[in-house]
Write a structure and sequence with these properties.
- With 349 residues, the protein is of the alpha/beta class.
- It folds into two domains: 179 residues, Medium-chain alcohol dehydrogenases, catalytic domain (Quinone Oxidoreductase, Chain A, domain 1); 138 residues, 3-Layer(aba) Sandwich (Rossmann fold).
- Strands 3, 5, 6, 7, 8, 15 and 16 form a seven-stranded mixed sheet that branches. Strands 11-10-9-12-13-14 form a six-stranded parallel sheet, with helices on both faces. A three-stranded antiparallel sheet has the order 2-1-4, with no helix packed on it.
- It is globular and about 60 Å long.
- The structure holds zinc ion (2 copies).
Length: 349
């Protein structure tokens, strides 16, 4: 089969690889019907994910049809349409029992990182009963495509932010994760959503689709000027909740600055460099920081919101490429050609 493989030295290539087979009884094999490229794939390509193994098929955001299941898989059978969680988790360890599946003692982020991922024709998914979310008949593959990764991240970030009805919510980054975060935050009836991004097209997208009420472009502005703009929009206080989904060199500082005292600051972004937490400067602001990688569990609830038409991620799809042209898709996604938000990979032709 065809698969997109990175070599650990910043090079990716479309190669012929053997079709995966079941290894453990709890494995399943999925025929990939739609996959996408995630910014985390670019992080791996650039060598910014130390645990990523070379000669691995990239990709962890996908949907498909179950082809084969091991004897330990009880909830799914061949023919089922499924959205696949970007994280592998056992459901039984100390962390899983508390919903903290990102730190599962027997899993974590494996697919497309330490084991072969989904940018291929077929993929082996471990612990399939936990990894799969059934796609209802009325939901298309593309409508379910982002469930297991960026939509899960948006949902997780918005929930961590403790948004109350009427809250002002600032979301830093109007890229794919920022936009799904705004979509999920919107369901919690905030007073206003403020989107911050240096990309004018992405801000426009957030406003045009009703995901944000106020757009702030920090380009050419100092951190204190951006802070003042957010304060102006929030009764002079700063945002009640901040979700930092950008991960650039200035956005961590922006996140704690635009938060009001006693706010929750959620950091769902992934940085390529260390960030500074200037405790003397923020002393007395009494902020609550929540950071990390998505605990992508409980996705049946999110799938139900998709089915009910309350979450629609269609606006994220910028262009479709067959697996044959995945290298073009990487180039367009990385360069944000034609304001590319998400490049969707369709099956090999
Ligand atoms: Zn991802
Ligand atoms: Zn576990």
């Amino acid at each position: 089969m065809k698969a997109l493989v990175h070599d650990g030295h910043r090079t990716i290539a479309l190669l012929d690889r053997p079709r995966p087979h079941l290894i453990d009884p709890t494995d399943a094999i999925v025929r990939v019907t739609r996959s996408t490229i995630c910014t985390s794939d670019l992080h791996i390509m650039r060598g910014a994910v130390p645990r990523a193994l070379p000669d691995t098929v990239l990709g962890h955001e996908f949907v498909g049809v179950v082809e084969e299941v091991g004897p330990g898989v009880t909830r799914f059978s061949p023919g089922d349409r499924v959205a696949v969680n970007c994280e592998t988790f056992c459901g039984e360890c100390f962390f899983c029992k508390r919903g903290w599946v990102n730190n599962c003692e027997h899993g974590g982020w494996l697919l497309g990182c330490t084991i072969d991922g989904c940018q291929a024709e077929y993929v082996r998914v471990p612990l399939a009963d936990n990894a799969f979310t059934r796609i209802p008949e009325r939901v298309s593959d593309e409508d379910a495509l982002f469930l297991g990764d960026i939509l899960a991240t948006g949902w997780w970030g918005a929930r961590l932010a403790e948004i109350e009805p009427g809250s002002s919510v600032a979301v830093i980054g109007a890229g794919p994760v920022g936009l799904t975060t705004m979509m999920c935050a919107r369901l919690m009836n905030p007073g206003s959503i403020i989107a911050l991004d240096v990309d004018e097209a992405r801000l426009r997208c957030a406003i045009d689709h009703g995901l944000a009420d106020i757009a702030i472009n920090p380009t050419g502005k100092s951190q204190t000027e951006v802070e003042a703009l957010v304060r102006e929009a929030t009764h002079g206080r700063g945002a009640d909740a901040v979700i930092e989904a950008a991960g650039s060199s200035t956005t961590f500082e922006a996140a704690w600055r635009i938060a009001r005292p006693n706010a929750v600051v959620v950091v769902s972004a992934m940085y390529e460099q260390d960030q500074v937490l200037p405790l003397p400067q923020m002393y007395g602001k009494n902020l609550i920081f929540k950071t990390g990688g998505v605990d992508a569990s409980g996705l049946d609830e999110v799938m139900a919101l998709i089915e009910a038409g309350k979450l629609d991620t269609g606006l994220l799809i910028s262009k479709r490429y067959p697996l044959n042209d995945i290298l073009d898709a990487y180039r367009a996604f990385e360069a944000r050609e034609d304001d590319c938000l998400k490049a969707v990979i369709t099956p090999w032709e």
